[in-house]
Design a protein that fits this description.
mainly alpha
Length: 145
């Protein structure tokens, strides 16, 4: 995801007077900028950094939806709307089948050791930002049996 795309979409949301969408995109931009400053890449923000910030925001929004009390339908709808906007910008994650295929082809020698810690360390370096860590962990556990 290009940082400029986020900025253009925020301007479009402002022109459309879509406050909820504008607020969500604004929070994404803030998260990206904060991460860029923390990593010293303030001027030229790479796509990988934008994707990482969006993934982190998506996880936070998902936790808000999941932990919202059932009797607070208004709040839950607000959190869900925020999550839906964030998902539009989130990078596509690999499916469990794709993850298993990559693990069995690229990392067959590491998986043969059956050392889950070493496998995760090697695999996460390659698949970080492309696949969900929980899915990777479950598939590695299955392959180590």
């Amino acid at each position: 995801m290009q940082f400029e795309t986020l900025q253009k979409d925020m301007v479009a949301a402002m022109k459309a007077r879509d406050k909820a969408r504008k607020d969500t995109i604004s929070s994404l931009i803030s998260a990206v900028k904060k991460l860029a400053i923390d990593e010293g890449k303030r001027d030229d923000i790479p796509e990988e950094l934008v994707d990482r910030a969006i993934i982190k925001e998506e996880k936070t929004a998902q936790e808000q939806v999941d932990s919202c009390p059932a009797e607070r339908e208004d709040l839950k709808a607000e959190y869900q709307a925020r999550l839906d906007v964030i998902k539009e910008y989130a990078p596509k994650m690999m499916s469990p089948e794709e993850i298993e295929e990559v693990l069995t082809t690229k990392f067959a020698d590491v998986i043969a050791t059956k050392n889950k810690g070493q496998i995760m360390k090697t695999v996460m370096a390659e698949l970080k930002g492309k696949a969900n860590g929980k899915d990777i962990n479950q598939i590695v556990a299955k392959l180590c049996q």
